[in-house]
Here is the input.
Amino acid sequence: MSADDRASDLAVPPTPWRQLAETLRDHLRHPGLAIGTGLLALLLLVALFAPWIAPYPPLKTNMSNTLAPMSSAHWLGTDQFGRDVLSRILLGTQVSLQVAFAVVALSLTAGTLIGAIAGFAGGWIERITLVIIDILLAFPGFLFALALVAARGSSLESVIIAVAIAFTPRVAAVMRSVVLTIKPRPFIESSRAIGMSEWRVLWRHVIPNALPPVIVVATVSAATAILAEAGLSFLGLGVQPPTPTWGNIIADGNSLITTNPWISLSAGFCIAIAVIAFNLLGDGLRDTLDPQMKRQTGRGLL
Amino acid sequence: MTGNEQPPAPDEPLLSVANVSKIFSGGRSLLGRQRSAVRAVDGVSLELRAGETLGLVGETGSGKSTLGRLVLRLVEPTSGRITFAGEDLTAKSMAEVRRLRGSIQMVFQDPYGSLDPRMSVGALIAEPMIVHGAPRADIPRRVSEIMGLVGLDARLAHRYPHQFSGGQRQRIGIARAMALSPKLLVLDEPVSALDVSIQAQILNLLRDIQQRTGMAYLFIAHDLAVVRHVSNRVAVMYLGRIVETGPRDKLYGAPRHPYTISLLSAVPLASPALERTRSRIPVYGEISSGTAVPSGCRFHPRCFRARLVAGAGKVPTVASGDGIIPAVCAQQDPKLEGPTSEHLSACHFGPEHDGRIATLQPAGERA
Amino acid sequence: MMQPKPATVLSIRGLTTTFPGPRGDIVIVDDVSLDVARGETLAVVGESGSGKTMTFHSALGLVPSPGRVVAGEVLLDGADLLRLPPHELRQRRGADIAIVFQDPLTALNPVFTIGDQIGEVLRAHTRLSRSSARKRAIETLERVHIPDPHRRVDDFPHQFSGGMRQRALIAMAIALEPKVLIADEPTTALDVTVQAQVLELLADLKRDTGMGLVLITHDLGVVARYADRLAVMYAGRVMEQGTADRVFETPRHPYTLSLFRSIPHLDTPAGTDLTPIEGLPPNPALLPTGCAFEPRCFHGGGREDCRSGRPALTPTDVPEHAARCWHWTELASERRPS
Here is the structure.
């Protein structure tokens, strides 16, 4: 067949590495995605190596050197207990990213499954799930977190579970609506026609095709998770002092905001950076992850 | 039902559809109003023998695609019986039907949408074998074998559907359907989405495959010339009913039902000389929707023969829409019967009434 | 070369449209010249990607960005549309030259009534009042045989059947009595019986108003039944043109001949073998240097002159007929298979 002859010069299978490199290059051409990925990679490195980078142990108090101004010894000064603010912020990165990743992992898994099953099954399963999702969405997430902390005691796990539960219905709602657009596509019927079971169709064809937009939502939810953790810790309901988290550091610096503003401001700055990083990443993924959108640009004209 | 099931006799049909109906119930709208039900397929019977091609033609809304899906039980019949190779498909559990889908496969119209964009071609063709538990070790060899059979370069197995042209994608769809060596292939408009220059490639490929494997085809299409080209027998559907069925040459050479005659006359021939001498048969209006099936014969609002017979004035008539038609057409549903047991048509009046067809002018159509 | 005939109402000369590509400009419409006379139907035949639609979008200044018309002129009653200032071109579009699109559902705005949409066309070009525009809309709907136009004028597009939507679009196009009507695959979305009704309507309107009709299609049967003249396009170029009778009786381009042989016809013996056109429709970014059809050609495929040189559209032995093939004389000595 001449049709295939002409295509056969391109038939050399690309090596997986080259393919990966090409995909990466394609994605990183998106400025938002590149900046977001860069910032996040930096935060990750800081979190991983914080114990080694930090110039002082974050919990070590020094009552003879409290509220020191910025100096070459203490770049961001010290707090009212003489602890090095920079070291505390570096260690705080760990908690924030831990919360972010755990929340994304939990809410993505649970939300994807719940949303996919609801959308794919339809009928009463879908209706009941929708009602539950709506109730959870209407319930203020922060209030829910407060209730959970009150019941379980304030700890990192409580924060993660509370925020994950608040986000799962959001992911599930998005997942369901995406699944509804995939369900009528011909390849789903064609999968049934070859004799696939419904579970297999859901697992092999529906979920993989529905994931990209859901991943975007989950990425953006990571940013909110960081904010939620900081807020709860600031109120003293999250991770308990003296463990350094960005929220705790802001709380510590709160009373000193007029005299030593750097303590609160620097932690606030870190929160802002992390939130921006996740949001840029989410926007970038939305633009690049959708193969339909990629195909539409440029190709349709011919 | 007799208890002792006999193996099918050699001339027993491979597929037998008996009085099958599908009514899509409308459910309730947002405001709780009952939506009207759609009678997509309404008491259809047909038979298909091994190695044979039955062409199913009709307009949008005739129910031909639903009928194809009923055969695979991708759509659940409301009533009726579908027998495949001696087994009653309608009585089986969904799991058994899924197992049987190895023997009945389908090729879809849309070569772009019917392949999962996230799977490579090799994986797509291997999938039916995996689902039906073929030995894993055999699969790669079988995939390249089938790709060769449908005229695809087996070295392209790692590629994704969007890297192929429409015609090649339809080859992938056919390869996927053939992966389990089915006995019956339901082809739902397999070439209508393709460029004209590509259609012949696919039609010839389907012919070669049938000659090699002896598969039976249920070929669903709206293009009368394509159906004539591929079919041994043809059934014409209108609003959920078969209105005429017969051997290909009989149906195209001496069509009996006024709808078939109108359809054939509406297809322009690729010859200006023939077109100039051809008489045009008017078709009135458009196909009604399945929610409001006309009374009596469901073709009567569009029928030229009804108007001719009424015009001759030997039968009681009634007014219908913008014309006068025989009362029987508006009141009685005609049975599918015919001069021979092979060639059947559902019309109260025979083609002998069409003599004065040239006197008819479509309402307001031509000066 | 050819002077426009006196009755010519639309004359496209050397129209060339390009789109920027990764390796230089991609030519989508390649030096296309076509004439449409008053009261004449010109059919433009080609597969998807042949440039048949883009030719007329270019002629009307509707090329989507980043495409550009780089050469040629489009004479409508002697005035070059491509050199008109934008507001004048807009005035001409709709009033003097109108286009009917392929997909009647997406071409109509779902939130306005049919009457509003026809009225809008009228009011954009004339000083009609709202009520007289509505009256004209009803008249126009009557002309396209919409039953009960007084009532249907207030319907929304979704209340119309597919055939009626296409009629409504035709009504919008003819509301201002254009000199040329371009119908872009007007019936591909319709069933065959409805297709026949719509095409008959177009033929009647053309006869009554004397407008020139351009029928863009891929269906050779439609061409045979309705066209006076015919241009076959491939890869953005006109491959063959002439009167419909001549092109069907004595095609002088291998592509035209291949098209006939590759589709089943109702008037040939059943089971006649089809000869497919091998290979793929052309990719405009990767056209061969020579004849665009050479890679798929049963006739000249592989010959040196076909590979290296681009044939021009040259007159053949058939009157009023031209083909873009180095070897048309050999086709002329073959008989057309029937």
